[in-house]
Write a structure and sequence with these properties.
heterodimer; A: 411 residues; mainly beta; 5% helix; B: 228 residues; TolA/TonB C-terminal domain; seven-stranded mixed β-sheet; three-stranded antiparallel β-sheet; 32% helix
Amino acid sequence: MRRRIVELALMCLCAGQIGVQAQEFKVFDRTVQFHGFASQGFVYTDQNNWLTMHSSQGSGAFTDFGANASMQVTDKLRVGAQFYDRNLGNLGEWHPSLDWAFADYRFKPWLGIRGGKVKTALGLYNDTQDLDFLHTFALLPQSIYPTDLRDATIAHLGGDIYGSVSLRHHLGTISYTAYAGHRSDSMHSGYPYLLSQHQTYFDTYGGLQYGGDLRWNTPVSGFLVGASRMNEDITGKGLTINPFNPGAGLLPYSEFSKADWTNQFYGEYAAGKLRIDAEYRRYVRDQLIFGGTSANLTDVRGWYVAGAYRVAKRLEFGSYYSCYAITSVIWGPLAALAPNQTDTSLPANHIYDQVVTARIDLNKFWNIKIEGHFMDGYGNSTYPDGFYPQVNLQGFKPNTNALVLKTSVNF
Amino acid sequence: MKSYRLLPLVAAVVMFGSVHASAGGVKIVANPSVRADSITAAELRSVFLAEKRSLRDGSHVEPVLAKSGMAHEAFLKRYIGKSDDVLQTHYRTLVFTGTGLMPKVLASDAEIIHYVGKTKGAIGYVDSDLPVEGVKILTILQAGANTERRLITRVEPEYPDTLQRLRIGGTVRLSVTVSPKGSVDSVQVLGGNPILSESALKAVKQWVYTASPSQTTIEVSIPFNPRP
C-alpha cells in the first residue's frame, strides 16, 4: 500500500507541473477553444473489493482523462467534440470513446436544438459525472450515479430540443430538455462485466433512449428543483453457455426490454459557501433474457442527501448519505437457478453509504480529495452497483469501509 | 404626514428609474458596435452566464471577465449572484459538456478597456472611477424598469473636423430625459469635451425611444474616436 501512496503522490506532483492553460486558436476567423482534464484515484477497502478493483490491497486502477475542442461558428451555432478514456479496475480498460460531438443551434433562448452524440440530461449530475473537478466528492452518490454503469446513461446518439423561459411575476426560470437517440454501451462497462461471470459475453448492448428533463430555478435565490424521465428499449446480443447444459458450448444469447424506465426527482440549494442537494431515482428494468425464454424484473430505488461547505478559499468539507435498494425477480426456466431477491433488508439487496470528504483546491486547476465511505450492504444482484463476484471470490462481507484519495486537473 | 405624499414618487423612481452602471463600484463598458445604450440586470446576468449572446435589440455581445479585483467581486455580487469559484464551475460545466465556451478573462481594467474597445460585441466591467475611452458605457435598468424601452431612431453626432484632425477624442456622457411618447425632452451634459458635447447634444435631441408609461431618465455615453 505504501508503494501505491508514493505512486499517487508522484502523480500529483507531475500533475502540478502540467501547463494548465486553455488553448485557443483561430480557424476562419473563429476562435477554437481546446480544454482537457484528467484524474487519478486510489481506493483502499477493508473488506470487499469495490468497483472491480482489488481495492482490499489498495488499488490505483482509477484513472480517466478527456479533451475537447469547441467553436462558436455564429451567434447561434456552436460545434464541438470531446473524447474520453478511463480505466477503472476491470472496466474501461483504456478503450477511448467519443464522449460527445454535436452541433448546437439556438434559435431563441427558449428554443435550441442539438444533434450528434449528446450528453443525456438526467438529474443534477448525470452529464457531469466524469468531471471530478466540478464536484466536492471523489465519488458521487453511487445509488444515483454508479460509476461502473456510466455508459448506461451518459450519452445518446440523436438529438435534443432545449430552452429556458423566464416566468412572469419574478417566478424564476423554467429550463427544459427533450431528447431521443440511441444508447450504445461499451463492452467494458459494468453490466457486460457482471454477466461475464455466467459466461455470457455481449457483442452489442444498447438501443433507443428518449426522455426529458424539466427544472425550475425558483425565485428563491440558489434554489432549484427538477424532474427527469428516461425510457429505453434495449437489446443485448452475444454468446452464452446454456446454464442447464454447460457442456454444450457457447450459444447465441439475446436479451431485450419489455419495459425500461427511470424517474428522477431532485433539488439543490446553494447560498454562499453552503450547498445542499438531494435526489431520488427509481429505475425499473423488465428484461426478456435468454432469447425470451425467461424474464428478469429489476427494481432499483436510490436516493441521497448531500451537503458541502467551503470553510476556506481552498478547503471544502462535504458529506452525504446514499441509500440504494434493489429487488430482482426471475420468471421462466432460469428461475430454478436464480432465486428471487426481494428482501431489501438483506445486505445483498442494499447499500447504505455514509460519506465524508475534504476537498483541497491547490489552485483553480488542480484539486485533491480525501474521502471516507462507510457502507452497509453490497447490493449484489442481477444488476450491479459497485460490488462484483469476480473480484470477491471468497464471498461478500456485509460491511465495507473505503478510503478514496483522488486528484484531478483541468485546463 | 406630508412625507407620505412622497411615497408614490419614491416608488416610481425605484420601479421605473434607471441607474448609472457605475453604481456599486463598477460600470459596464461595451464595444461601440453594441447598439443598445442600456441593459437590464437580468440581461446582464444572462450574458455573463452564457445564456444569451445577443441583446434584445439584436446586438451581438460576448462577455469579458476580470481575473480578480474589487470591481470583479462587486460585479459578481451585485449582478451575477455567484462567487468566483461557483462561476468558474458554471463555465467549466458548459465547456466540458459541450454546452458553452469559456469567456475571455483579462487581468486588469486597462486590458479590459483595450480589449472591449477593439473587439466587436465585447462587453465587460471596470471600476466606476476609471476614466474610459473608445468604449461605450451601458446604463443598467434595474428590476421593474420598463425593459421594452429602446432606441428606435438614432442620429449619429458629427465629429468636428478640427478636433478629428487634431486627434482629440473622448467620451461624452449625457443624462437624457425621455418623454412617455419616446421623444427626448431634455439633455444634460455630465462630462466630456465641451465641443464634442455640443455635437453629441444636438444629435441626441433627435433620438426617439419606444413609448413608456412614464418619463425616463437614461444615461448615455457617446464615444468619439479620432482613429476609427
